[in-house]
Amino acid sequence: MALSLRCFLRCGKNAVSAVRQRGFHRSVPAAAQVTVRDALNQAMDEEMERDERVFLMGEEVAQYDGAYKVSRGLWKKYGDKRVIDTPISEMGFAGIAVGSAMAGLRPICEFMTFNFSMQAIDQVINSAAKTYYMSAGLQAVPIVFRGPNGASAGVAAQHSQCFAAWYAHCPGLKVVSPWNAEDAKGLLKAAIRDDNPVVFLENELMYGVPFEMSEESQSKDFTIPIGKAKIERQGNHITMVSHSRFVGHCLDAAAVLAKDGIECEVINLRTIRPMDVESIEASVMKTNHLVTVEGGWPQFGVGAEICARIMEGPAFNYLDAPVTRVTGVDIPMPYAKILEDHSLPQIKDIIFSVKKTLNV
Amino acid sequence: MKAMLAIISNALCRITGKNVLLIDLSEYISLTSPAAPTLAQTQRQPPKPPPGARVVVSRSFTDFTPQATFDIKQCDLHRLEEGPPLKAELTREQGLQYYRTMQTVRRMELKADQLYKQKIIRGFCHLYDGQEACAAGIEAAINRSDHLITAYRAHGYTYTRGVTIKEILAELTGRKGGVAKGKGGSMHMYAPYFYGGNGIVGAQVPLGAGIALACRYQGNNQVCVTLYGDGAANQGQLFESFNMAALWKLPCIFICENNRYGMGTSVERASASTDYYKRGDFIPGLRVDGMDVLCVREAAKFAADYCRSGKGPIVMELQTYRYHGHSMSDPGVSYRTREEIQEVRSKNDPITVLKERLLSNNMASAEELKDIDVAIRKEVEDAAQFATSDPEPPLEQLCNHIFCNNPPVEVRGTNPWSKLQSVS
């Protein structure tokens, strides 16, 4: 107790999260700083406590505490039955997870990164996503596939792909892409409670980032509805739509642009499929300009879909300029730092694109 | 008894077009009673048959052998000290039930063949005739609350797991009365404790291991029967499933229905080892005569007991044969000879094998079995009638069943102005 008090006085706000990490049952303070990793951990812990059909399986999730420590402490608390270390057999264990969901359990299937989910993609699409439709409602598959998605740092081409567009292409799946800790917790809880297959795309670089979490969001019943976007920043001049880590980039760009008198409205998609096009349309009808920002490749991507949808809807007539997509460069991810930095949207790219779109 | 004879006699008259008189011999001849001498004194003369009639003799049902024991083929064993028993008990009821089941599957598949050739069934249609003993034997060995999953040659199992012929045929013809309301088709039929019907070769095996995991997790003493073919036996995901099932001692019975051909490729051309019962390596296995329903039943019982005892998974290879080609688009004679097919049909047909056992052991009569055949034909015919006359699913339901327990969502149609509704 004295130790934690000293820590608190010395380290200020970081100490709060240090104290939080030590236990699972804590009194609920007012708004607190929580990392995305801890938010995910709390979500899984709370849902496993709430429903004993919920269990976690994946590589290194149990005794290693998770390759990225997202499942830290869960094996110790729940044991072998509910936190299962799998061999390196993505196709096999993804299929096993889907089968267990068909037979009444509610599995969380972790892919160490979504790059490895390609090994198992048949089980995700053909066994999970399509089954409720093929069976005309006889067979549900309540499963969550989660793990880090997209670029990390220095992990090169085979470990850096963004799969949002791939999975969001398929009917029968819900695809969720949280940005901050509140997103992470609320959406993961919602995903676990959802009776449908949900692909939950996390981001490794966000795991360690702390965010303020409101008191409400710390409640054990706090969920965020899947399929609703959030306006992170209000603005009148231009709409920026993004998901996952690049929401932060958009907000940073918006802060810089504000100094030039350009007020950006930043929309955090939160869910890729089903996409909340209405929120984007409402914003575009106000600002008349739209820029999409994502880490994935441009062709057939999330931004491409947003462009198509805006054109097909009422907001098209409100556009004063074509929609601009800011995306990852259309190449496999290189390794050298300077090359990697220039393969993904930087804040200056977003600022440049906004100004071009506004013709300023 | 007299009423029964009258009914049968009438039926025979209608079928044969001849006058037939059935008499109950038990009134005149006592086959079992030791008090025969006293009866002889009171014996009556049999009634004189009307002119032009033929006398067909029937026996009362008490004269059938109620139960018999049969020698069955020994199973080849892998990593097992003992295998299933070498003798199988069969009661008359069971015999008739297995016969009915297999004959129903046979006739249903032949009807599907017919409907496909008439283009009333489209797309893929993989028929199960020849392999009936596998489905019937397995179902006889497990409980209804055990689980079963198979690949695309699934109509037989769909039936044994409780779906009616009507719902199966109507699903094949794509009508709203089909078990999946016409949205699944041949390869995607489901029922309680039956998980299809899976189109991707081998994908059902990890699913089956997962169902077994759920059984173990829930501690319900149930097992999962996970079927695959000799073609799927070379899929990598099978070996991933074997590994995890053995590691976690999942109550999974992996069953390879080896019908000697994966589509058009014989087992010798596809597999470096055709001992499919050994492919589980560290998992014990047995190789079973899949054309004998009693063999299949005893082996499946043995396997289910093994799994239920907590020892982990087991592999079973059923040596069986399909009369049809891989699917309806495959005549099935480019990679095997007609002689081979004919030989299996004449020497090893699962229905014939059972029938001969029942008849030669006085467990049923030929007429009785014939009546069953007739009844089944009628049932299948009625089901086909339904399947061809039932309407197709209504277009309003096109987008339904995307999500479970979800508020209605809008679905984009083929063009931006086409906004369709999807309810759960």
TrEMBL record, chain A:
Task: Report the residue ranges that make up the Transketolase-like pyrimidine-binding domain in this protein.
Answer: 34-209
Needs which cofactor?
A: thiamine diphosphate
Give the EC number(s) listed in the UniProt record.
1.2.4.1
Which InterPro entries does the annotation name?
A: PDHB_mito-type (IPR027110), THDP-binding (IPR029061), Transketo_C/PFOR_II (IPR009014), Transketolase-like_Pyr-bd (IPR005475), Transketolase_C (IPR033248)
Q: What does this protein do?
A: The pyruvate dehydrogenase complex catalyzes the overall conversion of pyruvate to acetyl-CoA and CO2.
The record's top EC class is oxidoreductase
Signal sequence extent: none
Which keywords has UniProt assigned to this entry? Carbohydrate metabolism, Glucose metabolism, Metal-binding, Mitochondrion, Oxidoreductase, Potassium, Pyruvate, Thiamine pyrophosphate, Transit peptide
- Tell me the protein's name: Pyruvate dehydrogenase E1 component subunit beta
One Pfam family from the record: Transketolase_C
One of the entry's Gene Ontology molecular-function terms is: metal ion binding
- List, alphabetically, the NCBIfam families matched: PRK09212.1 (NF006667), PRK11892.1 (NF008854)
Q: Which reaction(s) does its UniProt entry say it catalyses?
A: N(6)-[(R)-lipoyl]-L-lysyl-[protein] + pyruvate + H(+) = N(6)-[(R)-S(8)-acetyldihydrolipoyl]-L-lysyl-[protein] + CO2
Q: How does it assemble?
A: Heterotetramer of two PDHA1 and two PDHB subunits. The heterotetramer interacts with DLAT, and is part of the multimeric pyruvate dehydrogenase complex that contains multiple copies of pyruvate dehydrogenase (E1), dihydrolipoamide acetyltransferase (DLAT, E2) and lipoamide dehydrogenase (DLD, E3). These subunits are bound to an inner core composed of about 48 DLAT and 12 PDHX molecules. Interacts with DLAT.
Question: Which Gene Ontology cellular component annotation is one that this UniProt entry carries?
Answer: mitochondrion
Q: Where does the UniProt annotation locate this protein?
A: Mitochondrion
Organism, per UniProt? Betta splendens (Siamese fighting fish)
Supply one GO BP term: glucose metabolic process
UniProtKB/TrEMBL annotation, chain B:
Name the Gene Ontology molecular function terms of this record. metal ion binding; pyruvate dehydrogenase (acetyl-transferring) activity
The first-level EC class reads oxidoreductase
Metal-binding: present as a keyword of the record? yes
Localization per Swiss-Prot or TrEMBL: Mitochondrion matrix
The alphabetical list of record keywords is:
Carbohydrate metabolism, Glucose metabolism, Magnesium, Metal-binding, Mitochondrion, Oxidoreductase, Phosphoprotein, Pyruvate, Thiamine pyrophosphate, Transit peptide
Which co-factors does it depend on?
A: Mg(2+); thiamine diphosphate
**Principal subcellular localization:** mitochondrion
Q: Which GO terms describe its cellular component?
A: mitochondrial matrix
The reaction(s) catalysed by this protein are:
N(6)-[(R)-lipoyl]-L-lysyl-[protein] + pyruvate + H(+) = N(6)-[(R)-S(8)-acetyldihydrolipoyl]-L-lysyl-[protein] + CO2
Q: Where is the Dehydrogenase E1 component domain?
A: 101-395
| Pfam families membership | E1_dh
The protein's superkingdom reads Eukaryota
Biological process GO terms, please?
A: glucose metabolic process; pyruvate decarboxylation to acetyl-CoA
Name the EC number(s): 1.2.4.1
Describe the task this protein carries out.
The pyruvate dehydrogenase complex catalyzes the overall conversion of pyruvate to acetyl-CoA and CO(2), and thereby links the glycolytic pathway to the tricarboxylic cycle.
Q: What name does the UniProt record give this protein? A: Pyruvate dehydrogenase E1 component subunit alpha
